[in-house]
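so i finally got all the pieces together for this one. its two components total, 802 residues if u count the protein bits. some of the lines might not be protein, just check the labels. i wanna see the whole assembly predicted at once instead of chain by chain like last time, that was a mess tbh
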Amino acid sequence: MKTNITKIIIFSFVIFSLFVFWQALRKNNNYDTKSLIGNRISNFQLIEIYNDDKYISEYDLKKNKFTLINFFASWCAPCRIEHKYLLKLSRESEKIKIIGINFKDKKTNAINFLEELSNPYNFVGKDSKGKISILFGIYGIPESILVDNNLTIIKKIVGPIDQIQYDEILKLIQ
Amino acid sequence: MLSNIGIGLVVIVLILSFLIIYTACLDLKISNKFIKKSIYNLSLFQTTFTVLSFFTLIIGFINSDFSLINVYENSHTTKPLFYKIAGTWGNHEGSLLLWVNILVIFSFLFLVFSYTHGKKFRLYTLIFQNILILGFLFFLLLNSNPFNAIYPVPIEGLGLNPILQDPALAIHPPLLYVGFVGCSIYFSAAMASLIAGYRGILFAQSIKFWVKVSWCFQTLGIIVGSIWAYYELGWGGFWFWDPVENASLLPWFAITALMHSIIVLEKRKALYSWVIILCLLTFILSVTGTFLVRSGILNSVHTFASDPSRGIYILLFLSIMIFSSLTIFFIKHKKENFNFNLKSRETFILANNWFMAFFLVTVLIGMLYPIFLDVLTSVKISVGPPFFNIIIIPLIVPFLFLMAIGPKFSWIKSQNKFYYTILFFILGSIVINFSITYFFGKYSILSNLIFIAAVFLILHSFLDIKKFIDKKNKFVLPRIISHLGFGLLVFFIGINHQFSLEEDFNLKVGEIKKTKNYEVNFEDIKIKQSKNYKAVIGNFKITNLKNNLVQYLDPEIRIYSNPETLTYEAAIKTKITSDLYLTMSNVSRSDYYNIKFQNKPFMIWIWISALMIALGGFIQLTLKKNEN
């Protein structure tokens, strides 16, 4: 009888711990920046990748009706896949400006990347150490944030932009 | 190219694992004394191919082959060769391959060296070990493949975090992996022992060597990590009770308990179930630690880029491991009766085990409580040094006393009368302790007790050394060295803690600050331009006011560009009696610099005594060889 109770206690402790670990894993998703929708992005400053003297801050974004901030890198394979949608977006819609933030990348590689695939961005900012991206709540790339002229985040895309996401963006900015 | 070779090799290892399990199962049915030759061959092939796959990855790193994502993300062409190689295990995927290597190599070595033991037991060990290997191989192939290719091939890699480019940190992970993953072999052996009914003395003998090997490497690995933290992290500390440090301590407590109780099993045929529990627990705790660190649940300097899918896999694996081992244990477990005499060595070893279990539970609670609380109530707290210090430090006092006295007792029942020696030594320790307080300064009652206990152990160890020189029984030497090392470690940490001088002040160039015993003269400031950073180097002249000894310290502030980051490099002057430690940081909008000046007595002795603990273990490993 005594050993049975011991067994039950041990097993329930183990099950409980494993369950908590499992929950803790899921809890990591709390960092999912989707919950940021509705928040406003606050002060930031981006230095341009081509020219260190040029930079933009949140005031410049307020001039645009909509801005899509896209995080990319030359080494990121899905970024290549989503690239054509970014190009399409920059061609087809006047209302939206696209800002690229080059994440943890080498300058030359990034410039070559844009030369090879052509440049959809109105401005390319650099974030070679990945610190600015953290301020935007990014945890992997590609990721994109759509903000309005109030700097409120209205959409957040984790992973590459595809046709469905593309259509949604178009709908949102109508 | 390299990617295909690597994946090919890993797949071959995977197939060999299946083959080994299959042939071993067939061989189980044949009742003779010898294991089939083919199993040896398969295991040898498996080892060869695993090692080859690891070399393939190392070659990728040496040649900076950026067609491998792993090399691209963790290396750079301009890195020195040493750090290119170290980069192989400096990341999650590469270290997992190292992990598999150790599993396979230990599996092979155990098979070869356990030839005196029962066939069934060896075969079951091999089967369980290969199940573990399979688990990790699938994890490696499906989730964390170090040989994943990237296309188009990047021209340059992203490089390794500068803080990780340190010799101590290059050898820290492999040491720990040998220690932690080495435990797997007696996890498998314990399961095999339960199933094959291979109990008692023979079982103890079969795993004793492996327990010692993994204990030595774990101990050394933890010490090296601590040394790195002291020299590189720049806070002047060496143990922070950081969750990941705690995760590494848990298996260490279990394995230390195991190393002691296995002697009881060997000599007294008792504590079999307890030894089995410890065997299982050590590896389970190793995997739990890995899970918590790699999944990103615990955050610290050790955090690998975390990935929840990785966590789910390890968690699943962990659950299977725990439930199968618990079930097998409860089914096969037989009740044991033992009756130890109070005045016997086994009683003291049991006491050691209770202490270890207590330390383990304390650290486990300290580590898990914040996670549990966060998950269940969303309250975020962190359990820090005060908790551990309050609970663990008082217990160190009796622990040290028992550690000194325990080995004096003989097995079964002691007849020796050595109470006078004990009394004499206690008096001696008290005298030494109060001379320290008299000459150098007072401290709390608890510290007094700790010093007395530590000195007591040290004195006892010296007595043992004297006896050793008289009798030349080399088998007691490792124990004496390790126990003496522990006594010295506690003693020097105590001294260091009590008599460290820490001053915090602001200075301008040209100014002088007088502290109790030192004069700090901020003589000059220089600017040095390096390849990827600009360094502001302060020149400090430190004069010891007692003996007018002059020393120069040159701390740095490094300004990395893109984006601007500042790092502070401490200047450390190590001497036999003390370390001088100085960091400076700039105070914004002024000419002043904030100076942190520390004098830490006997710092180097903390490392020496900690290394002595490990040294004892290593000496024992060589003794074992001579015995055979």
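Chain B is about 65% helix and 10% strand.
Chain B touches chain A at residues 72-73, 150-151, 154-156, 158, 291-292, 295-297, 306, 308, 311-312, 315, 318-319, 322-323, 326, 330, 368, 371-372, 374-376, 562-563, 565 (CB under 8 Å).
anyway lmk what u think
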